[in-house]
Amino acid sequence: MMNKNNLTVSHLHVSYHGNEVLRDINFTIETGKLIGIIGPNGAGKSTMMKAMLGLIPKDSGGIEIGGRPIQEIRKKIAYVPQRSNIDWDFPIVVKDTVLLGTYPKLGLFRRPTKKDKEWAIECLAKVGMENFANSQIGELSGGQQQRVFLARSLAQRAELFFLDEPFVGIDVSSEEVIINILKSLRDQGKTVFVVHHDLTKVEHYFDDLILINKELIGAGPVDRVFRPELMQAAYKTPLSMLGSLGVGV
């Protein structure tokens, strides 16, 4: 398990076709926490997560953990994309989807062992989906699909987890299962980043927040970031309207 370190993002700039999407993002967050990435629609939350992971090009910027470039610990990172970015018609059963999580540690030309397959089923059990092991992934509900992809990330035995909008379009019981697992990972000393949009849950779900709207508005403990003046700056919403977003005023 990783020691507690800092994750540092320095001077992160991202643009698409000449349009600036993220401008000079700088923050340092302690690892071993459950961290929400929040901001209005179009703020660049998913873009920032993908840029941090090297999944999309960036104009400039560095991402380090404990002083090491994030690329050096690629195998310790699990990423769960937005459900809308996944081809649910791809013909694969649930247990094989989860088994894919073991591949980064297998290396070239090695096949999953019996132990790997047992571990995949164990990860399915952690998310309450073991009874669906032989179902086609496309036949599941949105919440069930999200649980399966979380199980796949658990199968990686990762130290850092990045989830992009995991609670969108899922049922209440699946959301509860998922947040409890994420809190459990945090309690084991792992680091979890979640792009999140429901501000009413922020104080119950996260230790720290990263608040952006194309540039950084605030980063740090929830009680320091989830404040009316910062939320107003990010959401361009009058103070009188912030109560409807779940922000105490």
TrEMBL record:
Protein name: Manganese transport system ATP-binding protein MntB
InterPro entries (alphabetical): AAA+_ATPase, ABC_transporter-like_ATP-bd, ABC_transporter-like_CS, Metal_Ion_Import_ABC, P-loop_NTPase
Gene3D superfamilies documented for this protein: P-loop containing nucleotide triphosphate hydrolases
Source organism (scientific name): Siminovitchia fordii
Similarity remark: Belongs to the ABC transporter superfamily.
A single GO molecular function term of this UniProt record: ATP binding
Coiled coil: none
Pfam families linked to this entry: ABC_tran (PF00005)
Record domain ABC transporter: where: 7-239
Record keywords: ATP-binding, Nucleotide-binding, Transport
Entry keyword annotation includes Magnesium: no
Gene: mntB
